[in-house]
């Protein structure tokens, strides 16, 4: 089997309930927008491959339930992430205020090296806007993050923001690029890589480990 | 087409026969009896085949239930009723049996006016906002919950959730409860009954799944892991090998009580037992799904693959055929005593609490 990608990253979508995390993800991976979909329960993920500077980057994007209490489950995923989207809704001041809380949780539970970007979603709903673009910019600057206003509905800045975070993750790991597969991928990723490379022939035997 | 459906009994007229639907997709309504729109990939042929058999079962069960109930609104708890419940409660008796079996009927009668008083009291704006965020995200594929429906069940849903959140302040509102309340409303068609059934489920039948710490949920996920370790060890090994946390693949099973995971009819059959027998049934269902599909799960070669397969095993003929599936859940996982569950719950809870402190 031909090798389908060079590196594998895990990105995580965080932000209040209803800011549009799932919609951002569906737009990015499937180019679809569903005005009504069900609330995300627990954690789910989707995958997509991008090409950045000639490197095929496979990204696994984890989507989480936004309600605060679900963090007791979702924070287990923070430490597995290399990049994090902090998402708020430009029509909800409250969701913007909460970004600080999300950011401090990320500091606490995610790896030091984790890359973050700030996303203000629903930019198409200008008439309902409660958070000015300047406010988003200012907060992003304060945290040293890149900032995008997006709309999953109109497909505004979706590819740009996902690609940007993937680039940042790639850059953050650039020094190790030669040994990238080993350094940023734990056994789990390595197993995934080898699987697509056709290293594993049989997995029906559960005793057999994939990477040895 | 719709006129034909009503024309049962009378001999078909020649001009009607010309319009006789020729495919299953034309014969089966595009919205199910509960108001859910069938998805684009719905398998009409398999459904029609299954239903032709299941309708006969339903009719037989319905007659037996009517004979047993003889118009009474009380049911005793005994082996016969338990057997009947496992074989499925006919939809016309479902609300009654759920209310009776769970003790909700009694609670509702003892606390007349309580539900209304909760609605009239002042409401916590934070709770209200959390609930509102999910109203249009609860069953958007159900015609009764769509904004254009009349009456629109979103309002009913709002009332039940707000009332429950103020009744049980330790829980308030947890995402997932919207789906549970939604199902109760669809079945009982009554706000107050839905509220009391909600109280039975969350307050008594289920462990603390929905409290802010979600300790009961985390516990039951681990309990399932322990049961799989014993009953389907190869799958447990695969999960360990690929570093897949149980929460990733089963949290929705527990939180949503299989809503939007398994087919509607199958979920209702599970809930029949849930109200009568308790939360142990959830493990039976989960274990059956895993045990029955272990070969498929074991073919997975990485974490995403495992996740996909755990989604795959909740679809298809095995789970659509709810009557056979319900027979399987009592056989396939083997014995599962209350004592085992209690012991495992205690051990897992202690372990989680130790890890978190």
TrEMBL record, chain A:
Keyword Protease in the entry? The reply is no
Pfam families in UniProt: Ras
Q: Which organism is it from?
A: Pygocentrus nattereri
Enzyme Commission designation: 3.6.5.2
Q: What class of enzyme is it?
A: hydrolase
Is-annotated flag, keyword Repeat? no
Sequence similarity: Belongs to the small GTPase superfamily. Rab family.
What is known about what this protein does?
Answer: The small GTPases Rab are key regulators of intracellular membrane trafficking, from the formation of transport vesicles to their fusion with membranes. Rabs cycle between an inactive GDP-bound form and an active GTP-bound form that is able to recruit to membranes different sets of downstream effectors directly responsible for vesicle formation, movement, tethering and fusion. RAB15 may act in concert with RAB3A in regulating aspects of synaptic vesicle membrane flow within the nerve terminal.
In Swiss-Prot or TrEMBL terms, this protein is called: Ras-related protein Rab-15
Needed cofactors, names only, are:
Mg(2+)
Quaternary structure note: The GTP bound form of RAB15 interacts with REP15. Interacts (GTP-bound form) with MICAL1, MICAL3, MICALCL, EHBP1 and EHBP1L1.
UniProtKB/TrEMBL annotation, chain B:
SMART domains given in the database record = TBC (SM00164)
Report the residue ranges that make up the Rab-GAP TBC domain in this protein.
88-278
Which parts form a coiled-coil structure per UniProt?
A: none
Q: Which domain of life is it from?
A: Eukaryota
The family database entries (InterPro entries) matched by this protein are listed as: Rab-GAP-TBC_dom (IPR000195), Rab-GAP_TBC_sf (IPR035969), Rab_GAP_TBC_domain (IPR050302)
Keywords associated with the record? GTPase activation
In the record, which residues are listed under signal peptide?
none
Listed GO MF terms: GTPase activator activity; small GTPase binding
According to its UniProt entry, the function of this protein is described as: May act as a GTPase-activating protein for Rab family protein(s).
Name of the molecule in the record: Rab-GAP TBC domain-containing protein
**Originating species:** Pygocentrus nattereri
């Amino acid at each position: 089997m031909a090798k389908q990608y060079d590196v594998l990253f895990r990105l995580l979508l965080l932000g209040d309930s209803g800011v549009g995390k799932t919609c951002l993800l569906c737009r990015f991976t499937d180019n679809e927008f569903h005005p009504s979909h069900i609330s995300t329960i627990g954690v789910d993920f989707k995958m997509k491959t991008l090409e950045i500077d000639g490197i095929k980057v496979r990204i696994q994007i984890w989507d989480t339930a936004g309600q605060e209490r679900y963090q007791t489950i979702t924070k287990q995923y923070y430490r597995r992430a290399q990049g994090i989207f902090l998402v708020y809704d430009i029509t909800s001041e409250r969701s913007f205020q909460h970004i600080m809380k999300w950011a401090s949780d990320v500091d606490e539970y995610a790896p030091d090296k984790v890359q973050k970007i700030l996303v203000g979603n629903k930019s198409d709903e200008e008439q309902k806007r409660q958070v000015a673009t300047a406010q988003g910019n200012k907060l992003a600057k304060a945290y040293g993050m890149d900032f995008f206003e997006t709309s999953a509905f109109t497909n505004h800045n979706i590819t740009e923001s996902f690609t940007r975070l993937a680039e940042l993750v790639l850059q953050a790991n650039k020094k190790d690029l030669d040994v990238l597969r080993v350094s940023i991928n734990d056994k789990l990723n390595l197993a995934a890589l080898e699987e697509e490379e056709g290293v594993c022939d049989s997995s029906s035997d559960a005793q057999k480990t994939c990477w040895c | 087409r719709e006129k034909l459906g009503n024309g049962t009994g009378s001999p078909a007229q020649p001009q009607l026969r010309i319009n006789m639907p020729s495919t299953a997709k034309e014969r089966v309504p595009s919205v199910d009896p509960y108001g859910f729109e069938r998805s684009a990939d719905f398998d009409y042929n398999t459904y029609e085949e299954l239903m032709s058999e299941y309708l006969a079962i339903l009719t037989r069960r319905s007659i037996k239930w009517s004979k047993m109930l003889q118009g009474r609104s009380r049911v005793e708890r005994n082996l016969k009723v338990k057997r009947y419940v496992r074989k499925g409660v006919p939809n016309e008796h479902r609300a009654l049996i759920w209310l009776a079996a769970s003790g909700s009927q009694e609670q509702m009668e003892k606390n007349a006016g309580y539900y209304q008083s909760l609605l009239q009291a002042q409401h916590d704006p934070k709770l209200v906002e959390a609930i509102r965020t999910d109203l249009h995200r609860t069953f958007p594929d159900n015609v009764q919950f769509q904004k254009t429906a009349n009456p629109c069940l979103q309002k009913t849903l709002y009332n039940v959730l707000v009332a429950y959140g103020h009744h049980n302040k330790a829980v308030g509102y947890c995402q997932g409860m919207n789906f549970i309340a939604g199902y109760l409303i669809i079945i009982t068609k009554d706000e107050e009954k839905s509220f009391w059934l909600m109280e039975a489920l969350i307050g008594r039948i289920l462990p603390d799944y929905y409290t802010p710490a979600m300790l009961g949920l985390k516990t039951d996920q681990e309990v399932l892991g322990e049961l799989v370790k014993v009953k389907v060890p190869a799958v447990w090994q695969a999960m360990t090998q690929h570093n897949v946390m149980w929460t990733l693949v089963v949290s929705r099973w527990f939180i949503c009580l299989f809503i939007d995971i398994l087919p509607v009819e199958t979920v209702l059959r599970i809930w029949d037992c849930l109200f009568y027998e308790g939360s142990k049934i959830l493990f039976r269902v989960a274990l059956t799904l895993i045990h029955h599909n272990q070969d498929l799960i074991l073919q997975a070669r990485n974490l995403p693959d495992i996740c996909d397969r755990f989604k795959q095993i909740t679809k298809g003929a095995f789970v659509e055929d709810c009557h056979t599936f319900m027979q399987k859940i009592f056989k396939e996982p083997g014995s599962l005593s209350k004592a085992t569950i209690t012991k495992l719950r205690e051990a897992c809870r202690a372990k989680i609490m130790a890890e978190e402190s």
